[in-house]
Design goal:
The chain has 300 residues and is α+β, with helices and mostly antiparallel strands. Helix content is 49%, strand content 6%.
Length: 300
């Protein structure tokens, strides 16, 4: 069962306002570029690839099991209900109603995260998924064609041909060029996603942001933003290690084609895996506290 916590109006207002201010700092650049009709191949990714908009990220939720005093459900939306609170009425997330509608999805996410957490981190991919996404691809079809590649197409193909590609993440693998897919040692699919994801994978760790916002409002808004910040930092490494030359934008390359670059990549990847393990554990503990999702030995 969810532990019931009552926040008085002053407390939850402070948390809500601090959350909004934090998000404003994080998304200000993206919103300004959007107003100017500009795009950024690194910094805008989290709002072009994922479905969560800045206004949604800015909206604070207390998470399941928290009552907010001195307010009404109409101010919070259909996923909230009125409950007794202090000297009057309060609101709380309608956990039972949400799980009645989305319980199957919550179970799927819980199992994916829990199974990922049990596996050792594989740190030998070196970001080759980004190279496989442009391998032997016509120049006009390259995703970020406005930015130069660090190698000629022939040199890039020769480099990729000499690598051992072991991408375990379906949503990265599905963007491989047709010529690159047979080079991957694994064949992840949506149907077996939980069989492949591992805690060293940049994209699996970036996806903690996706799972946190898709679990909203059952998880607190602060956790969603923590996951967003991790995903933002991972995206930086993802593109610095890619075949694109983004120095003009302030992203010096991590040259995975060299031994020093591979060592640098693995060091940062390990740090991300450690940060992600903490956030994954927090998400699992949130899920375990929902009605009907009792604490398991694995999550204790």
């Amino acid at each position: 069962m969810v532990t019931d916590t009552l926040l008085d109006r002053a407390t939850w207002t402070r948390r809500r306002d601090a959350h909004a201010e934090r998000v404003d700092r994080l998304v200000g650049g993206h919103l300004e570029r959007r107003r100017r009709g500009e795009s950024h191949p690194v910094a805008d990714f989290l709002f072009t690839y994922y479905a969560y908009r800045p206004a949604q990220l800015r909206r604070w939720h207390p998470g399941a099991g928290v009552r907010l005093a001195d307010t009404e459900p109409a101010q919070w939306g259909r996923d909230y209900r009125a409950v007794p609170g202090g000297d009057g009425m309060a609101v709380t997330v309608d956990t039972a109603g949400l799980l009645a509608r989305r319980g199957e999805f919550v179970t799927w996410v819980r199992d994916l995260l829990a199974r990922t957490a049990t596996r050792p981190a594989h740190l030998g991919c070196f970001g080759l998924h980004e190279w496989a996404m442009v391998y032997r691809q016509p120049a006009d079809e390259v995703r970020h064609h406005r930015w130069p590649l660090r190698m000629s197409p022939a040199g890039l193909a020769e480099f990729v041909d000499g690598q051992r590609i072991r991408c375990s993440h379906f949503d990265a693998y599905r963007f491989f060029t047709p010529a690159a897919r047979p080079l991957n040692l694994l064949s992840p699919q949506r149907s077996n996603q939980a069989d492949f994801e591992q805690p060293g994978c940049l994209h699996a760790n970036m996806d903690l942001y996706k799972w946190s916002f898709r679990l909203s409002p059952l998880v607190p808004g602060e956790l969603v933003v923590d996951c967003f910040e991790l995903a933002r930092d991972i995206r930086d490494l993802d593109m610095r290690a890619s075949p694109y030359d983004l120095r003009e934008l302030g992203y010096p390359p991590v040259r995975i084609e060299t031994a020093a670059g591979r060592a640098e990549y693995a060091t940062v990847q390990r740090d991300f895996a450690e940060r992600a393990a903490v956030l994954r554990g927090r998400l699992l503990r949130c899920i375990a506290r929902f009605d009907g999702f009792g604490q398991s030995d694995q999550l204790s």
